[in-house]
Specification:
single chain, alpha/beta, 2 domains, three-stranded antiparallel β-sheet, 10 strands
Amino acid sequence: MQNKQGNQKYGEYLQVIKECSPYDFSQYSNNSIDRRIEKIMHDNDLNMDQLIYRTRTSEEFVEFVVEEITVNTTELFRDPLLWKYLHHEVWPSFKNKANINIWHAGCSTGQEVYSNMILLDDLGLLNQCNIYASDISRNAISKAKKGEYECSFNIEKYYDNFTQVFEEDKHHLFEKYFVVNEKEDLFKVNESFVKKIKFMTHDLVKQEFPVSIKFDIIFCRNVLIYFNERLQTEIVQRFHNRLLPEGLLVLGAHELLDGFFRTKFTRTNQVYRKNNSFHFKY
C-alpha cells in the first residue's frame, strides 16, 4: 500500500509508551499519530516532559492515551454502495456453505458488525455464521457489546444509509432490527444479534489473533490508513495467511492494495479475493 512516511515528530514519546505498556504505536502513520498526541497535550494542558511523566507513572493515563490515539469514526452501513454490493453480489454466493467464518478486525464500536449481520439475516445466512469482532480499544469493545447508540447524532444518517442499501422503507427496517427509545435518546440492536458475536480486545500490531481458525471473510475497514507502509504490509500478510482459499478481505474506501499485492489479491469494489498460488512467509 502506498504510504510514504518521514521521521515521527513524537518518536521519543511513542518509545516511552512501548516501554511501559503493552502498546506499540511506533509504526502508526506520522500525520495521524502526531495530530492525536498534540491534541492530548493541548486538551490536558501538558508539555512533553509532563506527558512522559504521567505515562510512566499512571496505568490509567496510559489507557486514556490509547483511547485518544485509537479513536475512529464508524456508522451503520458506512459507504452504502459497498454494502449494497455485498448484499447482492458477495453474500448470496455463500448460500450453500454450512459454516461461514467472519472476522471484523478493528471493529470500533460495532456498527459495521451489526450492518453485516443485517445483510446476513436478510439473506437467511446468519445462522450459518461464526462472527468475531476485535478492537484495541477496551471502551469501543464495551460499547459494541451493548449495541446501543445515540439517536440524536446518528439516526437520520443511518436511515439514509439503509435506504441506499436496501431501497426499502427505512423505518420498517429500523423497527425490525432496532428498538428505538426516544426518551433516553438511544436505539438498541436486536438482542439476538448482540449475543451471537464473539467480541474481544485485540491489538493487531502486537498480537496474533487468538482464534485458530481460517476465515471466509475479514473486514478491516479504515484501519490500515493509520499505519505506515511497513506495518500495513505485515498486517495484510497476516490477513492473507488467515483467509481460506479464495477468502475475501474488505477494506475502506480510501485504502488500496497495490504493487506487490496485486498478484496476491483480485479486487472488485472494496473487496479483495485471495489468490491461492502464494503463501506469505514472514
